[in-house]
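Action item from last meeting closed. Structure (439 res):
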């Protein structure tokens, strides 16, 4: 029986002796923790979310994407680390340490590296988070009293998520050690590589995922729908990229090898043969580089585009300098509002160059899949996925606002769809079958 203190001493000694490998590993892990913590902390900042809910949606997507990428990235760098350690573990095994003892030693090493990575990443996130926050406010021109707060929930979620990732990595390392015999452990990184098999199913999945992800990005035109589909497109592209690098590249190189007129040439023969083995070793690394490069390019281009087109967005969404909204008023009160507007413009020495006024009736309905009709929404049922928001204005107000002279027959309405196509529809269509008089 080995003294429990010996495991701790061995773990610390091993980390010191392998510091050239473990320091980059801990730094890379801490960087992943830091990035996730900063994003999650920004997402949980209530004052920031209240002033820009689309931003909150994007941050939540960024959270999920970063977490998925961190899992793949950390497993990838761990594979290099454990490959270098196999020879050392094999020597311990031959000298008399059982795999159970080695497992305890690896567990303590994992605890030390996990604690260092999570604490280091969260501390770095706290220090750099304020800088990222200020840059974000500057880009969005969001002034006022928006406080930067360290969310305890973010610290907790970051610790839980990355703690779970490191536990999975430890279990993976333990399984690798259990399945290896002492001779295989001693050979470690010197073991010869077998020729990779062609994985056609993974290749096809990669092509379909990549095509699906880019198709969603290109086909989706509606901004609100794009927000919801953005996350799906990103996940599909990530899966497709990894699958094509890991399986598609091998399949393509083997196709070149089977093409005798191409393969049996001096330059092609050695290049293709070597690439098949190198792609097996470096596929995940190349996929990581590809995804990271894409993320940087997308983030930079999107930020520059949004920042450069900010004035155009404001002019499009708010074509008038002022907007006054009132509810539940009568004609007399409308006249009083008009007087207030005139007095205010006169007092501020301004002239009203363009003014529009229209009456709006708004209520939320639920589309009934069985009856193909719109029913009134029950109170508190705002999370219903079939919710439809109906906004109605009188035809006279529409003509005045749009400068048109549209005429409608009885029981006929003018519909404006989200796809920006205006069409005349009779009220006896399936969606508008029910009639209700609204006073």
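Sequence:
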């Amino acid at each position: 029986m080995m003294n429990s203190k010996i495991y701790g001493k061995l773990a610390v000694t091993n980390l010191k002796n392998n510091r050239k490998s473990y320091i980059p590993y801990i730094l890379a892990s801490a960087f992943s923790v830091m990035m996730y913590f900063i994003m999650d902390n920004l997402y949980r900042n209530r004052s920031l979310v209240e002033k820009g809910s689309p931003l909150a949606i994007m941050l939540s997507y960024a959270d999920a994407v970063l977490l998925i990428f961190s899992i793949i990235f950390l497993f990838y760098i761990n594979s290099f680390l454990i490959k270098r350690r196999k020879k050392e573990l094999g020597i311990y095994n031959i000298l008399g340490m059982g795999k159970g003892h080695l497992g305890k030693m690896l567990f303590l090493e994992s605890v030390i590296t996990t604690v260092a990575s999570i604490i280091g990443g969260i501390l770095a996130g706290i220090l750099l988070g304020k800088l990222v926050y200020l840059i974000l406010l500057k880009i969005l021109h969001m002034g006022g009293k928006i406080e930067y707060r360290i969310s305890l929930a973010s610290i907790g979620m970051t610790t839980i998520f990355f703690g779970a990732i490191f536990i999975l990595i430890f279990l993976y390392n333990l399984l690798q050690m259990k399945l290896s015999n002492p001779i295989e452990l001693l050979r470690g990184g010197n073991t010869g590589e077998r020729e990779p098999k062609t994985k056609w199913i993974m290749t096809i999945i990669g092509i379909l995922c990549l095509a699906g992800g880019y198709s969603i990005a290109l086909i989706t035109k509606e901004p609100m729908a794009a927000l919801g589909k953005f996350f799906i497109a990103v996940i599909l592209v990530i899966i497709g990229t990894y699958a094509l690098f890991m399986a598609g590249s091998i399949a393509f190189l083997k196709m070149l090898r089977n093409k005798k007129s191409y393969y049996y040439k001096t330059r092609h023969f050695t290049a293709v043969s070597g690439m098949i083995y190198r792609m097996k070793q470096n596929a995940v690394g190349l996929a990581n580089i590809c995804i990271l490069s894409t993320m940087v390019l997308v983030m930079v281009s999107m930020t520059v585009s949004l920042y450069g087109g900010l004035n155009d967005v404001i002019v499009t969404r708010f074509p008038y300098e002022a907007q006054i909204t009132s509810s539940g008023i009568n004609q007399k009160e409308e006249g009083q509002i008009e007087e207030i507007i005139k007095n205010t413009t006169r007092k501020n020495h301004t002239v009203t160059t363009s003014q529009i006024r229209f009456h709006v009736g708004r209520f939320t309905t639920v589309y009934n899949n069985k009856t193909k009709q719109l029913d009134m929404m029950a109170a508190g049922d705002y999370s219903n996925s079939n919710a439809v928001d109906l906004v109605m204005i009188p035809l006279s107000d529409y003509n005045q606002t749009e400068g048109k002279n549209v005429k409608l027959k009885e029981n006929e309405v003018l519909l404006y769809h989200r796809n920006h196509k205006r069409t005349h529809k009779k009220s006896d269509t399936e969606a508008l079958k029910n009639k209700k008089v609204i006073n």
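Note appended to the action item: Confidence is low (pLDDT under 50) at residues 420-439.
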